[in-house]
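Hi there,

I know you've been waiting on this one. I reran it after we fixed the sequence typo, so this is the corrected version. Both the input and the resulting structure follow.
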Amino acid sequence: MIGEVHHKSTSHIVDYPEISTPVRNDKATLSPTTLYVDDGVILASGPTLDITAKIITIAFKETHKWLTHRGLKTDQVKNELMHFTKTKNRSTNPSIHIPSNIPNTLKEVTPTNCMRYLGLWFDPQLRFQEHAKIIASKASRAMEALCMLGNSTNGINQLCLRQLYLGTILPIMTYGSVAFWNGKPSALKNTLECTQNKALRFISRAFRTTPTTALEIKTSITPIDITLDYYTTCYATCTRRLDSSNLVICCIPEPHRDGITTPSTPPLPWLPPPPRNLMSPYLIRQHKSKAKKTTSTRLTSMAKAITSNTKHILPHAEPPWRRSEYDHDIHKRIRIYVPENKEGTSLKLEWAEDHANLYDEYKDDSDFMFIYTDGSLSYDMGTRRTGYGVVAYRNGMVIASEKGPLGEHIEAYDTEMKALEVAAKMIHELIHNETHAPPSKIIIATDNTGALQHIFQGSPGKAQSCSTSF
């Protein structure tokens, strides 16, 4: 639906010369329609508000035509229009005329100053001050409801009140904080801080003149700005689980993507600096400096919190795309042997003895190659030390080996998975560089059954990169 409507809208834009010229010059764009359950939004950008209004009208007509053809319709009450612009002169904001649910009739939609979408209240300047007032009022009403549960002498204790605040009221104030919080002191922070201060006085049963810092220490509740920074950092970490085609990833500046390539460009254009042959180098430097300051959005502020060199998890690398030893094309070539778990007994020594006998029997056979992998986790004077090691045997001799450290924040499971990944790459290189007959049977031995069972599964989770490489 989205692709069809976007294609038809783009093709109809060509019929309007005043719109098609900015679009060809990358000064105006129409983003694909964004849908979330029953809420949708059409986004367009351009050099003037009249151009964006015409683009939105064309896109809505195509969307309405697509829905009508399938017996669907939009809720006319919820049709809203907002122009995101720095100007405060509302009289210059144009309206749009869109088809209504009554055939052959049009409905005028005038720009609004405050619009709700997915629980966030937007304003034309994206300052979110009105959003802060609304959620602060909502949190205050919830706090007043908690007053019925206790007072300074009776009712539930402070620990329960604190838990209720953290579980019910704080999420109201911090919902969607990554969209409106940029980490700077502002009126938005002061509004939320006043609401939290009321909650602190109610939980601790303190006087109004009690310093806020003392209340925060007594109740073990962090200041609101630190809480918002923490949520922003958490979301920055969650971006490592987003698909490369996600719009959030596409809009994150390239230096913060850590090498992730996106299939599409950001939906809104970035206006390049003027040509060098038309302006002096001084004015060009001024333009770049101004663009760098003005393009610092909430998204770029969040992107700065992304830790570099962190693992990127592919959310769609899971069944039915994962590999297994039971797949029809490899089940005759790969066998996995895992000892059965029997309560009260250990088969480790028995399996080790059987493998030693197997190695002694075939160690001189050139058709066999034995690969041994292992991971280690140790503590040296309070410091975690992790690493992996891989060694390959053929004809009773060591033909290749590799080892390396992994860092202090790595778990033992990750070291075992990394060792199996290195073993697969080592086998590939040995066979590729083999001048004589390559081995027909390769035996990989590891002492971690969990890693052995999950090395074929590229499902989202720990050591996913090792599974996909294997």
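Quick highlight: The CA atoms of residues 82 and 112 lie 6 Å apart.

Best,
R. S.
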